[in-house]
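User: Working on a comparison across species. This one is Secreted protein from Streptomyces mobaraensis. Can you predict its structure so I can line it up against the others?
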Amino acid sequence: MGALAALSLATGTAACSGTGPPEPSGPQAAPGPNTVERPVRLLGDGSTADTGPQPRQPKPRRMASGEKPPQFVVFSWDGAGEDSQRLFSHFRKVGKKYHATMTYFLSGVYMLPEDKRALYEPPQHAAGASDIGFNDVRGVRDTVEQLRGAWLDGSEIGTHFNGHFCGRDRGVGTWSPAEWKSEIRQAVSFVRNWKTNTGLKNEPPLPFDYAKELVGGRAPCLEGQHNLITAARSLGFRYDASSAGGRQVWPSKLGGLWDFPLQDVPVPGRGFETLSMDYNFLANQSGTTKGDPSRREAWGRQMRDGLLAGFERAYHGNRAPLFIGDHFESWNGGIYMKAVESVMARICTKEGVRCVSFKQLADWLDAQDPEVLAKLRRLEVGEAPRGGWAHLGDARSSGPRQPTPHLPSWHAPSSQEPSTHEPYESSQGDDEEEDDKPMRIRPVLVRPAAG
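Assistant: Here's the predicted structure for Secreted protein from Streptomyces mobaraensis:
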């Protein structure tokens, strides 16, 4: 009964707006009482429960003719485990402060303790194999607590799948659709059976049916999307965020799913762009998670200002959704976490901006006139319609805002206050010839710290 009592949930209204009221075409939370009793129907071993529709969900509306689109921004997190750094819980607080819902791509093995690792049977690998390890009982409990709270906050729980196998040697890019289906089903199973696998029988359940809530994910290292989409579509997914690099243009569908790629954004002081993820800035800065301490402050400003530059050219241009990917890690002394928090503080509070989850963005896109979306897709990076949004679809646009040289980028996957906005200054040595090219390194694989 204690677990059931713990699911007497408070719900309210929330919209990813600025300080003013939300625009009519943007997501808006439906009005309701401040507190309601949510019915609880335990599922399986009681690890999850059906408690009804997710609270704090916006109700999308089709835009009127000539209406300016909201500026959507999606912050997403790969792995999404709570460890001793407490970054998951920290950024939930940050999201509430700045009215942002987010997408947490949970790695399924973070719901599985080390002594039960043999339950994971990864495609093309021995049972119990994982390139990011597993968790411990305390880590599972802490992660469940944050997943529960995040869903009640209105955020989305997606998937980063399980063992994070990359590369040509049996990595996810070599998997068949059938193998991807197995991987997805196992990820769901680890969530639906965490009580059995940890012995934490008296903990409250997760307040959602993961098999129904799961509608999208991001593949490790952005590999294997073609066969993943085939498998994911058959299992009810609505979008995929695994494209190996994209541009700041309006999304389209790929294989029947919305395609939400990480996007190339400027790297201030350098002659190229990189993907909108913390690790990609790291790859083109230190190339290691423990770089030169004397350069870290400048690196953090560089990521912050690069993301802000990408935001500004969309906000004042084509209004294409901006996708920002991150990890709950303190790489290079936590500079990337500080940068992300600063960016969130600056942009989620602006007029017309909606900081939402991928699922909420898919809901909004599905509600729009397909012809209007087609016109939006014809706008180039940084372009706004000539003569204003009432003239969307005219022959020419107003031209790009602050064009940046575009080079193909490479994906290197996977308790602070916002920093002040200081001018970006290049570090010493940034004028070397090799600094004008994106650095290509193998990803550093991480796991939640035992805590």
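For your comparison, note: The first helix runs from residue 2 to 5.

User: Helpful, thanks.
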